[in-house]
């Protein structure tokens, strides 16, 4: 259904421009001009009651006066008028509209929210498809449609890239740079507030277009997250990478995003964990996005991690080694057979190693240079070749320049014809610095469409690292069994869901209640019991066996150590009784308003490795599972990683391996190794709990989760569940 709406939006048969103005530099005149310039095949009707004629064509007073029902509206009218316009147009049979007006929920005012609510109601009642509001127009090369007020587009060429972005200025700017580099863009959608169609709908549509091979998203806030994730998974299954430039990832950025779109942006760690699992590749800048898209569109993904590097400068050789190391890209030593073939070709003069500095050798005839590239490409540890060369900006100003330009182009064309036309290990070009392409370069680039150009070593190796990571995640998704589905929730979880539905504000659960939820998911806990009196505490301690730990029980006391509400290493009944009295005094002194509910008496667990396991319900992505170094290290070094819920044991192992705590688990400087299998069991259980809980839990902290020496298990020593309020949904 939504793909049909996107089809109507991007492939209309006729257009009416509402709010047409004479001003030749205004948006409406520029949109009309671009539609004419690029040969939009259907009629375009200006609408403004103040004109009988505008831009040399008849102008109509309102929709009812048009000679035919417009298929699409360009609505350049105030926000307060939009809903009524759409009602009228939909009743006539208009299928879609682009709403440029601001003044809706992004203003964060009561009036703006009211107007957006009215707009949502109209869309639900009429079924009309819209992009926006608060957007800047769209491009559909196949339909010869350009409703962006952008005079810098030179042509509309159906290409392999489709783009959707909530920023109307940034998204087309990235597209223009990509087009300048010879990668054509088939679609640009500036989606604005996404009150109607959202990124998920556009991605689904692009997946169905056989010409599209890559989808770019510029995201301020994800609308309809589950639909977005499902669409990204379908794109991955179709072999179409989704590259996302996510805004609002810093504290300041999230504030700016809230002001701009009216939606709270989620934490980037949650986005990376959940959207990354769905196949999304997040980039941090427009330049990074452009390099990555060029690589993914032009080249095959390297089958191996190793990169063979061929340079003609000692400086670039050194910069390449440093950049590869920074980004964790392997530059392997050449195999003996590779070295033997190089010496036979080059002699013993140049230093032969990877990266290979062959400055003098690269002046040899084209076929000899290609032979050298082939030797490197065929090395058993090399998955791709990075070749330093500048694309010539002109055909040359004199004979020497022309010879140089011709030699470079001859090598490029030879690489395309000899190595890349049938796929296989990719070859990418890199240059000492970033530079703009000239008109000459843009034209000659068409002769080697499978050769990626990655500006300067730092960006080149960052791009390669990103491509390798995407390859690995995609392979893991294809090889893995289905993610562990949500199971029947435990009685404890059902109880928490009921509390959540009734809660008007987030609610902290006491430690015993929090641990009851963990116990229902077989997450290991020490022996413990809750006492209402000091006498009961002594009885529980005697049953468990000394030594024991005594803690205060109070839901309002979320940081017990700060209040002196924990007593450790208690070896006899008198110590337990005294600990209860001491804790009661400390809590009263800390905050007289806190009502002490009793004492938790727990088995003392031997010293081990303190870890943290948790769940965080992100505003956009929903629940994510956290793992890392716990105890005081959590706040001091923040060695944590995140994963989408529902992972299997292999997924738990990958989550652990992405932290430095993994090294400690294996054993470090005489400590350990620790019970990794028990930690994996607990992580899988917490992942299942996160999947079952959905939005009922705001957060779960198990800190510390102590791993004992290998074979001795692991225990959740403390736990805190924050129940989500119904009002927060």
SSE class: alpha/beta
DSSP E strands, number: 30
Shape: flat
**Beta strand %:** 15-25%
CATH A-level architecture of the largest domain: 3-Layer(aba) Sandwich
CATH uppermost class of the largest domain: Alpha Beta
CATH topology label of the largest domain: Rossmann fold
How far apart are the first and last residues' alpha carbons, in Å?
26 Å
Q: How large is the count of helical segments? A: 24
- Assembly state (oligomeric): single chain
Q: Roughly what is the average pLDDT, rounded to an integer?
A: 90
Map the helices and strands.
Layout: H1 2-10, E1 15-18, H2 27-37, E2 44-47, E3 53-54, E4 57-58, E5 72-75, H3 79-92, E6 96-99, H4 110-126, E7 129-131, E8 138-140, E9 145-146, E10 161-165, H5 170-180, E11 185-190, H6 199-208, E12 214-219, H7 225-237, E13 242-246, H8 251-261, H9 268-277, E14 280-283, H10 286-298, E15 306-311, H11 314-326, H12 336-346, E16 356-357, H13 366-377, E17 382-388, H14 399-420, E18 427-431, H15 439-444, E19 452-455, H16 457-479, H17 491-502, E20 507-508, H18 511-520, E21 528-531, H19 534-544, E22 548-553, E23 566-570, H20 573-590, E24 598-603, E25 609-618, E26 622-629, H21 633-637, E27 640-643, H22 649-657, H23 661-666, H24 676-693, E28 697-707, E29 714-716, E30 719-723
Parallel strand pairs: 1-2, 1-5, 5-6, 6-7, 10-11, 10-12, 12-13, 13-14, 15-16, 15-17, 17-18, 18-19
Antiparallel strand pairs: 3-4, 8-9, 8-11, 20-30, 21-24, 22-23, 22-24, 25-26, 25-28, 26-27, 28-29, 28-30
Quick recap of the structure?
The chain is of the alpha/beta class and 729 residues long.
């Amino acid at each position: 259904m939504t793909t049909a709406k996107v089809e109507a939006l991007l492939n209309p048969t006729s257009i009416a421009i509402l709010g047409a103005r004479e001003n030749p530099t205004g948006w409406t005149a520029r949109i009309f001009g671009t539609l004419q310039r690029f040969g939009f095949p259907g009629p375009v009707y200006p609408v403004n009651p103040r004109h009988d004629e505008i831009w040399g064509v008849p102008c109509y007073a309102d929709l009812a006066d048009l000679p035919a029902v417009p298929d699409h509206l360009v609505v350049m009218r105030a926000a307060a008028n939009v809903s009524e316009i759409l009602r009228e147009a939909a009743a006539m049979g208009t299928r879609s509209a682009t709403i440029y007006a601001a003044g809706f929920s992004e203003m964060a005012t009561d009036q703006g929210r009211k107007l957006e609510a009215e707009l949502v109601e109209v869309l639900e009642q009429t079924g009309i498809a819209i992009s926006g509001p608060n957007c800047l127009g769209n491009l559909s090369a196949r339909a010869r449609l350009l409703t962006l007020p952008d005079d810098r587009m030179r042509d509309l060429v159906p290409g392999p890239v489709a783009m959707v972005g909530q920023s109307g200025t940034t998204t087309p700017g990235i597209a223009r740079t990509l087009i300048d580099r010879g990668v054509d863009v088939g679609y640009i959608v500036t989606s604005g507030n996404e009150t109607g169609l959202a990124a998920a709908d556009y991605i689904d549509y692009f997946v169905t277009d056989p010409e599209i091979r890559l989808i770019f998203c510029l995201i301020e806030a994800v609308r309809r997250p589950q639909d977005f994730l499902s669409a990204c998974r379908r794109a991955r299954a179709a072999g179409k990478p989704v590259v996302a430039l996510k805004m609002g990832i810093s504290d300041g950025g999230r504030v700016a995003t809230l002001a701009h779109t009216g939606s709270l942006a989620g934490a980037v760690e949650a986005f990376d964990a959940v959207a990354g699992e769905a196949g999304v590749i997040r980039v941090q800048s427009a330049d990074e996005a452009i390099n990555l898209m060029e690589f993914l569109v032009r080249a095959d993904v390297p089958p191996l991690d190793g990169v063979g590097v061929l340079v003609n400068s000692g400086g670039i050789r050194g910069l390449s080694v440093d950049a590869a190391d920074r980004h964790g890209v392997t530059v392997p030593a050449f195999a003996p057979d590779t070295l033997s073939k190089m010496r036979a070709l080059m002699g013993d003069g140049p230093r032969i190693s990877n990266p290979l500095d062959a400055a003098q050798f690269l002046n040899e005839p084209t076929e000899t240079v290609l032979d050298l590239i082939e030797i490197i490409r065929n090395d058993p540890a090399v998955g791709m070749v990075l070749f330093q060369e500048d694309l010539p900006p002109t055909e040359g100003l004199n004979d020497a320049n022309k010879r140089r330009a011709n030699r470079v182009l001859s090598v490029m064309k030879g690489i395309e014809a000899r190595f890349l036309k049938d796929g296989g290990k990719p070859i990418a070009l890199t240059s000492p610095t970033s530079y703009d392409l000239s008109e000459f370069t843009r034209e000659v680039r068409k002769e080697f469409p499978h050769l990626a150009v990655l500006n300067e070593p730092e960006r080149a190796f960052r791009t390669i690292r990103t491509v390798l990571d995407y390859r690995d995640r995609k392979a893991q998704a294809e090889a893995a069994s289905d993610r562990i589905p949500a199971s029947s929730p435990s009685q404890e979880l059902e109880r928490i869901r009921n509390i959540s539905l009734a809660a008007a504000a987030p609610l902290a659960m006491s430690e015993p209640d929090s641990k009851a939820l963990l116990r229902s998911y077989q997450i290991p806990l020490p022996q413990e019991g809750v006492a209402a009196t000091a006498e009961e505490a002594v009885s529980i301690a005697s049953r468990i066996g000394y030594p024991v730990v005594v803690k205060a029980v109070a839901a309002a006391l979320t940081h017990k150590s700060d209040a002196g509400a924990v007593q450790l290493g208690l070896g006899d009944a008198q110590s337990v009784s005294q600990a209860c009295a001491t804790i009661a005094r400390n809590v009263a002194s800390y905050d007289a308003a806190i009502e002490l509910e009793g004492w938790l008496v727990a088995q003392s667990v031997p010293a081990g490795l303190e870890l943290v396991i948790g769940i965080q319900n992100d505003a956009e992505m929903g629940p994510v599972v956290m793992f890392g170094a716990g105890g005081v290290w959590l706040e001091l070094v923040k060695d944590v990683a995140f994963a989408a819920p529902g992972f299997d044991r292999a997924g738990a192992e990958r989550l652990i391996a992405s932290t430095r705590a993994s090294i400690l688990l294996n054993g470090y400087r005489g400590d350990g190794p620790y019970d990794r299998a028990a930690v994996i069991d607990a992580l899988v259980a917490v992942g299942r709990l996160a999947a079952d809980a959905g939005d009922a839990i705001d957060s779960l902290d198990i800190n510390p989760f102590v791993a004992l020496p290998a074979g001795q298990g692991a225990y959740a020593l403390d736990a805190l569940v924050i129940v989500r309020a119904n009002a927060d949904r």
